Amino acid sequence: MTSRERILTAIRHREPDKVPWDLGGMRSTGMMAMAYARLRKALGLPREEIKVYDVGQQLAWIDEDVRRILGIDVIALDTEKVLADHLYGWKPYRLPDGTPALIPARYEIREEPDGSRILYDKDGKAIGKMPASGFYFDGIIHELEDISSVEEIDKWIPGTFEREELEALKESARDLYENTDYAIMGSFGGNILEQGQGLRGWENFMADLAGNRELAEKLIEKMVEAHLKNLKLYLETVGDYIQIIQMGDDLGTQNGPMLSPKLYRELISPAHKAIYDYVHKNSDVYVFLHSCGGIYELMPYLIEEGVDIINPVQTSARGMEPERLKKEFGDRLTFWGGGCDTQSVLPYGKPEEIKRHVKERIEIFSRDGGFVFTQVHNIQANVPVENIMALFESVMTAR
């Protein structure tokens, strides 16, 4: 099987020739750049200029030589990476540990006297801050934080794809489709809960959902309208080339859903359904939803909405036991993740413990298809390289 065939076979709930594997197919299945630099050295590969395509999370683009050595089956059609390659270019940067790297040239990073770093967008607006001892940029701007009326939401103008961006996406998608055999995952987003939290601030939007229904409903309506407009443009541009479209909305915490199932059902679920229905009605592309945390109680709703694939399968959260998930939802959802606990096992376990853990997860999730291996979330900056190698070796052995 080709990589593309392998992934599609698994999504269709049939067992492929071997376990499909994703590393870096989207922004929660990859590696932080500091860890990636150590991986390249451990693999005996030359030092390349590492492309930090997700500046906020400090994620490295997985290079072709690494993909080939490991046998990765998926590649991202990541909008930021495509725009940097085709439109804006890259600029020099140093990782927090001093390793040289590149970031998209439309961003600027300035170091403050206290050692913290501030991230600025192409318009010179400060959008993120990394503490002196930190590894990530935390968002520091909430565009609609101070609004108090639906009239103010009416005045908000969401962003939309520009013609040059769509042309670059189409060129890149066509190239990947025609000249590689990877399964191609388009990064779209379509967030509702997360975007509302980002626009209003986490506390404000959660308070809106609980106590200001009119404001919350108006903002959700406006977000859905914007997503559908962009989704139409996106699918018309790349829908013939991608096999999977990545949506995102973190709905869970370590202890269960962020919202009550009732509130989710009333306010968020209809918005998700409108977006996911559009994909199914206008393409043959599978809907991939990234949602962290304990979302067991919400999974029946996600299936009704049209979610085909769930990620990251945070098995350390309440209700997310692998056997339970596979038994109850394995015939209707593809589990894209859950392959190695990135909270405790991968960073703190011994290599032999990691190998046993990964073998057990593959045995549970891969029965009858419906499984793509990846660790639960991004491999963090301080994970020992011997643990990363143990993870990869165990997957390659199981395949």
Write up this protein.
There is one protein chain. By secondary structure, the chain is an alpha/beta fold. The chain has helices at 3-11, 33-42, 64-70, 79-88, 150-155, 163-179, 193-200, 202-211, 213-238, 261-282, 299-305, 322-329, 345-348, 351-365, 385-398, and strands at residues 50-54, 59-60, 74-77, 90-94, 100-104, 108-111, 117-120, 126-130, 138-139, 183-189, 244-248, 252-253, 256-257, 286-290, 309-311, 334-336, 371-372. Strands 3-10-11-14-15-16-17 form a seven-stranded parallel sheet. It has a four-stranded mixed sheet with strand order 2-1-5-4. Strands 6-7-8-9 form a four-stranded antiparallel sheet, with no helix packed on it.
SSE diagram, text form:
Layout: H1 3-11, H2 33-42, E1 50-54, E2 59-60, H3 64-70, E3 74-77, H4 79-88, E4 90-94, E5 100-104, E6 108-111, E7 117-120, E8 126-130, E9 138-139, H5 150-155, H6 163-179, E10 183-189, H7 193-200, H8 202-211, H9 213-238, E11 244-248, E12 252-253, E13 256-257, H10 261-282, E14 286-290, H11 299-305, E15 309-311, H12 322-329, E16 334-336, H13 345-348, H14 351-365, E17 371-372, H15 385-398
Parallel strand pairs: 1-5, 3-10, 10-11, 11-14, 14-15, 15-16, 16-17
Antiparallel strand pairs: 1-2, 4-5, 6-7, 7-8, 8-9, 12-13
Helix pairs in contact: 4-6, 6-9, 7-8, 8-9, 9-10, 10-11, 14-15
